[in-house]
Design goal:
Layout (H helix, E strand, L loop, with lengths): L12 E3 L9 E6 L3 H12 L3 H19 L5 H13 L4 H10 L1 H4 L3 E5 L3 E5 L4 E5 L5 E4 L3 E5 L5 E5 L5 H13 L8 H29 L7 E8 L2 E8 L6 E8 H9 L3 H5 L4 E7 L4 E7 L6 E9 L7 H7 L11 E2 L7 E10 L2
Antiparallel strand pairs: 1-2, 2-3, 3-4, 4-5, 6-7, 7-8, 9-10, 10-13, 11-12, 11-14, 14-16, 15-16
Helix pairs in contact: 1-4, 2-3, 2-7
Length: about 350
């Protein structure tokens, strides 16, 4: 190995053969900053296929559940975006630098020749031959030498200067390592984004399928709270004129009343109301006043059953006795026969 002069300057020093842009030996000194270390880790992370897939999956699923009303999904959304951007690595880099600033932010002397690349610090010297690397990639800030096994060497452009940058670029091209940017390579991360979106579709599609396996009625509800009122909106494939019962109750108080074992307490439960909703154009809505109810968890329950009051189309479809009504949310009822019940929780404010 070439012997290193301990008095090398802290600015680029290139051994040049005449005006050749690809000298026999390229030497320069680089001292990374905290920001550059964070950028380096983020750059590697956001090009890693597993992290792209995972980041896409977490981001999209969290965005969907956030739109559906789960405020805690904002945490998952931020986590997914940090995975896609690679910025999740920032606190880990900060912690590592905090522990060994003298090692991670120390000046590094680089020597590049036809055989490989040497890196020397005040405490160690490491050398890698070119056969170790599968490819090199040039970004706006650096050259990234990739081993193909998750490990990489990053040569920052900032301390090089224009002449050294051109020399390093020429050397990597001559070695056949530097990948020229092509449309296929630029689009490759989008392929992994597509895999993440496919995973989202499989998970949500599978959930919907399992939830409705065997069901022959589509009915979904969404409660919306405004002050002391809750509005239960829903969509369904039931025909116009179908009657539904919409029940709303204070879930915490109901559980306490049942747990007390006092039948009278459950029978006289007052934090409950029931209104009728009628389907029109595949939609229905019901409004319940919760004035005087204690804050906590509420529950809405929408019931569909078959009797003579339902439209003839409903009776023809399911039978007057409800024997044609099927699905995981269909339960027997002593008064109404087979009855579909769809529950949805919500929060009652102070």
């Amino acid at each position: 190995m070439t012997e290193h002069d301990p008095h090398w300057p802290t600015v680029p020093d290139v051994a040049m053969d005449g005006a050749s842009p690809d000298p026999a030996t390229i030497r320069f000194v680089a001292q990374p900053t905290m920001g550059e270390l964070i950028w380096h880790q983020a750059e590697l992370a956001r090009r890693a296929a597993p992290l792209i897939v995972l980041g896409t999956f977490v981001t999209v699923t969290s965005a969907i559940t956030l739109v559906l009303g789960d405020a805690t999904s904002i945490i998952g959304l931020l986590l997914g975006l940090s995975l896609l951007s690679g910025l999740f690595a920032a606190p880990f880099v900060w912690w590592a630098v905090r522990q060994r600033r003298d090692l991670l932010l120390a000046p590094v002397t680089y020597e590049i020749d036809d055989e490989g690349i040497s890196m020397t610090t005040s405490s160690s010297t490491a050398r890698s031959v070119w056969s170790v690397f599968r490819r090199a990639r040039e970004t706006k800030r650096a050259f990234v030498l990739d081993t193909g096994a998750g490990a990489a060497i990053v040569l920052l452009k900032r301390p090089m200067g224009p002449e050294v940058v051109e020399s390093v670029r020429a050397r990597l091209r001559r070695l056949g390592l530097l990948l020229e940017p092509t449309l296929v390579r630029r689009m490759r991360p989008l392929v992994w984004v597509g895999v993440g979106l496919l995973a989202v579709a499989v998970v949500f599609g599978g959930s919907v399928y399992l939830a409705n396996a065997g069901a022959n009625v589509a009915l979904e509800t969404t409660p919306t709270v405004a002050s002391r009122h809750v509005t239960v909106d829903g969509t369904t494939d039931l025909p116009d004129g179908t009657r539904l019962a919409v029940q709303v109750f204070q879930f915490d108080a109901w559980n306490r009343a049942r747990a007390s074992g006092d039948a009278a307490a459950a029978e006289d439960f007052s934090y409950i109301d029931e209104v009728e909703a009628v389907v029109h154009g595949g939609r229905f809505s019901a409004d319940v006043d919760m004035t005087g109810w204690p804050a906590g968890h509420g529950m809405s329950a929408v019931y569909f059953w078959i009797d003579k009051s339902q439209p003839q189309e409903v009776i023809d479809r399911f039978g007057l006795d409800g024997s044609g009504l099927h699905g995981p949310n269909v339960l027997p009822d002593e008064d109404t026969g087979p009855t579909l019940r769809v529950d949805h929780g919500f929060d009652i404010p102070q």
